[in-house]
Fold these 3 entries.
Entry 1:
Amino acid sequence: MANIIVMGAQWGDEGKGKIVDLLTTEVGAIARFQGGNNAGHTLVVGGRKTILHLIPSGILHQDKLCLIGNGVVLDPFVFCQELDRLAAAGVDVSPSRLLISKKTHIIMPYHRAIDAAREQFKSGSEKIGTTGRGIGPCYEDKAARIGIRAADLADEALLRRKIENALVEKNALLHGLYGQEPLSAENIFAELLPVARRLTSYLGDVSAAIQAHQDRGVLFEGAQGTHLDIDHGTYPFVTSSNTVAGSASAGAGCTPRLFDRVVAIVKAYTTRVGAGPFPTELSDGPGEYMQKQGAEFGATTGRPRRCGWLDLVVLRESRRLNGPTEIALTKLDVLGGLDELRLCVAYHYKGAELAYPPQEENAMAHVEPVYETMPGWTGDISGCRAYGDLPQAARDYIGRIEELLGIPVRIVSVGPDRDQTILR
């Protein structure tokens, strides 16, 4: 059995949830290694849709162990809501098959309050487009060494003391800078206590669980996408964690020598939610068609996704940052019906032609894409189950992506359902 990293190669929303669900059959455990409930992974099995924000996408496979690693920031209220929704749908979410690392940091109500107040305080051009879920402020506390970790939920005296200490600083910000009402430590503790008591049975040693399952295979599930990485993405319009494949080791708690495969999830076109540069964005015509055909609305926020042509410059950067062994190409069916397709193969920037994105802050807002044009295809390909069933133009499109990136496309998704998949 292989140990597999699944990561997004664009700006997130590539369809990682479906591919994780698909590859779960090959492993014994699934570990989420970064991000929080700003992620939304959508699974469709037998026509029934399940949206997950924290619990790994392998949870629908009843014989698999699901792990939430130390690199995740966990909102305990959202976690419990997911537990309840899954249990109501008949999914086993008992502690015997779902484990949270004791080192995982906890998103608190004051993190959400600061996140919302900070974004509201900024002027239009300075807004990041945060989901307001408290992700960034929680990671800030982690780096400042003042965070609340999952293990703290089991020690009520310590938990109360940490909340009281945190609010000295948080209320100074909320009230003194942002003009918000100060928060009550007593109210937060009282609100959190029943949830904390519920979560304690899910706490454990995720590193030990990975070690125990490595011979049966572990799948490491990332959130967001490479170009939202806090270091390597389009800063400052990024998330607050490292989304690249290299963070799977630190975020799950295992050796980097464990990994056998890195699967890059690539949407057949490009989308982005929130603010930030997007060189191939289309404001009308094909962009509107992609948004409508692809139902491009965020699973977490419901916000419409910006759509554009596939950007090979962005994907080359993903290749050198992640070292993928293969590509899973998703939403190819959405492109059916377009007369022609374009691939961005380079950027013009400051008089030069670039194969990789410029590295200066916000420089991608000032590049001009260089396109190749290919013929499109007509007809619905969502019923195709073999590569040879695809129209020649669709196969040529896939072949050109493989040629330009030097990575084989092993999985082709032609619809949202688990069965709407071609394996090569």
Entry 2:
Amino acid sequence: MRALTWQGPNSLQVDTVPDPVLLNPQDVIIKVTLSSVCGSDLHLLGGYVPTMHPGDILGHEFLGEVVEVGAHVKTVVKGDRVITVSIIGCGECEHCVRQDFSCCDNSNPNPCVTETAYGQPCGGIIGYSHAFGGYAGSHATYIRVPYADTNLFKVPDGVTDEQAVFVSDAAPTGYFAADNAGIQPGDTVAVWGCGAVGQMAIASAYLLGAERVIAIDRLADRLALAESKGGAITLDYETTNIHQALLELTGGRGPDRCIDCVGMEAHGTEIDYAYDKAKQLMRLHTERGTVLRQAIRACRKGGTVSVVGVYGGLMDKFPMGAVMNKALTLRSGQQPGQRYANQLFTHIQEGRLDPSWMLTHPMDLEDSAQGYALFKEKGDQCLRAVFRP
């Protein structure tokens, strides 16, 4: 089969690789129909996640058709149109029983790396380095999915492929970000980052009762989408003092809920960005924390900061004093999309959510390396490049 492979930092190529096979009776093989890029893939592409091997297949947000079914699989059959939640749960450990699927004890067959780094092993993630299981990704003709009964969801009638593909990752990540923020009716919510996850966080904040959402980015096309598609108030951080603007918009209090949809490669205009970038390039720490610092500083006293932007390791100058003295709640995590997939499909079917407009650049898999270059450089107003094998 054909697949997009990582060859080294900022080096991708499409290769012919062996087809996947069933390894466990709970596996399925899926013929990929659509497979989307994701902002978190850029951390892999740039070499910020050190457990990538040349030849690893990228991709974790996808939709396809079931073509082979393991003997113990009960919920899908050949021919079903399905999405796969990108963060893998086993369905049986204590975390999965609590619906904290992204904290699964059993889905990562290489637990030692994250156990050493974080204190306990983390769950597996499709196409996301050997630290998170070494699973082959979805930018390929076929993909093996483990624990199929937990991680596969049939796409209901009335939901298009272009809508469904984002229920694999971007939509549940944005919904989880808003849900984790504890939004109450009437709240003002600030969202940093207007990529696909940020756009879904904006939409989800309104679904959960927010009165106003303020979206922060520097790209004019993404800010325009946040306003026209999401109904957000928009701020360009390159031309605006974000902290002052947020105070002015909230009567001096700060937003009730702040959501970080950016993560470890945040861009900024102030001195902390230059400091972070220099230390990151020298591998003296791993995170550029501009957005997280801004969110903590801006959030109202007693408010909540929700973090779904990916962080991998260590950050200097973390404002713990602000967290403690303002009585902030800090919540974070990889998305437990199994908790939300059917609910999101219902929102789509009933017209409350339509993520299909985020698919700005449909492309052939053979052109996927160029698609990533376009996505990384944010050229041609690319919000999401999506590949058809």
Entry 3:
Amino acid sequence: MAIKVLIPTPLQKFTEDRAEIECSGDTIDAMIDSLEESCPGIKERICDEQGKLRRFLNVYVNSEDIRFLDGQATSLADGDEVSIVPAVAGG
């Protein structure tokens, strides 16, 4: 199963400067593990010590925020696109 993962610029140092990576996995958690296998070190940047996504990241599956789906248990299918987007704040 191929999942396209869009990588933000600050994390591209772990992906050999690639903005797009193909991974596998039937859930976000499984996709993160697959991403770590091909890009060692990236998981600790996007997940905390308990394996939960860091608060300053937003993750979307086909433009749907996973916070409004099943979080890290959100199901993935072949051809899905996952976007990892750093949160932006300002004032």
